[in-house]
């Protein structure tokens, strides 16, 4: 019989989501709140946060998957941890509804709530996409892709069926933002190495294609640098298809449509079968915020002011309700944010917003310190394009190649939450310098029981010989 967890009776600060924002809010508040007799409670369906900027390096085998996750139970010792999904928040009664791991819903009362439920992959109604594609948002997806791409290369190396071989070696990434560019770069880099090590295929047999609807990739960087990235990817054999969109993916038969402003617009310009379709065309605020009594703006984000306080429909502060990160429309006081003057949804903001938010909640609840607006001048952006290759814009200065890659690793290695995790990531990279790159994929991770089932299934006895 499923039971609901026993909850602390202390006055509660409830943190909804233990990703980048929620993890740091809980970490910064847990001890201080305890001293005042309160409790910080964190609810997340997962028992760990994931450092998403490292997902592409997990796919290429440069980082061990486990190392990019931070276990809540190890690093949030003074936080009440609840594994489950918040399905509803009724701030009028200060109650959140949580669906626990066994599917049973229970109520969690709170004094203050911090909504930190992040974003989910944004898709469009493309026939067959849900069945054919995979996103890049979770470590499980990165592990699958690492193993799957290597497995497809090994399959292609061994098959005599020419059509199946071509399909196995065709890897399509839709979305030319940072995520898509890093994903295709890392995967292709690892795939080239695997192809070089195989018997019957060469890197030239690999068919990597990046599909982007706009005329430019990576909107965060200057046109000139973005063009350099396109040239760089093409020089490596990646087919960058600008002004092209995915129109259909039924049964893994892809139809690509022209988005160019000419006679071809809307027409199917290419079609083929694939085994691998990766979708990285954007994210959207977690739709759970629609099941709350907070204000949600047209793009689906929770409305907050610069102090990260949630606002009601009249723009007045809702006491005891806070939010930031990917799920919220946080005003960007630096004037360097999105066209609607809100912060770009990235980890650079989320970690800083978490620190400000924790101080503001503490000040508002316990009167220590004062509530202050969040303001951060963006430091730029760094992206890895495979081993030893990168592109970056640091403050105003563009960097390309090895230096940009070193900046990417240095920045993200240090930004990885907790020293214990930083050591693991840097340790792995150091190991790679000595032992070489490990792009190997592990087979049957998705079907680990298959061999045992075969072994344990009774077989008909061989007919007795006369
Ligand atoms: C592939 C990739 C690469 C990226 N690279 C960069 C980069 O190079 N630089 C950069 O600055 N940013 C990068 N980002 C963006 C960055 O990772 C996010 O902006 C950041 O993680 C946002 O933090 P968050 O806490 O708002 O959301 P998240 O970190 O996504 O955390 C949300 C949490 O909420 C939990 N949750 C979801 N639903 C519920 C629910 N109903 N109830 C309770 N909990 C829930 C989730 O399990 C998750 O733990 C990248 C993102 C991706 C996907």
TrEMBL record:
Record has Transmembrane as a keyword: no
GO MF terms, alphabetically ordered: NADH dehydrogenase activity
Residue intervals of the FAD/NAD(P)-binding domain: 12-354
Keywords, alphabetical: FAD, Flavoprotein, NAD, Oxidoreductase
Name recorded for this polypeptide: NAD(P)/FAD-dependent oxidoreductase
Family per record: Belongs to the NADH dehydrogenase family.
InterPro entries linked: FAD/NAD-bd_sf, FAD/NAD-binding_dom, NDH-2
A Pfam family reported for this protein in Swiss-Prot or TrEMBL: Pyr_redox_2
Xref: Gene3D superfamilies: 3.50.50.100
Organism for this UniProt entry: Galactobacter valiniphilus
Taxonomic superkingdom: Bacteria
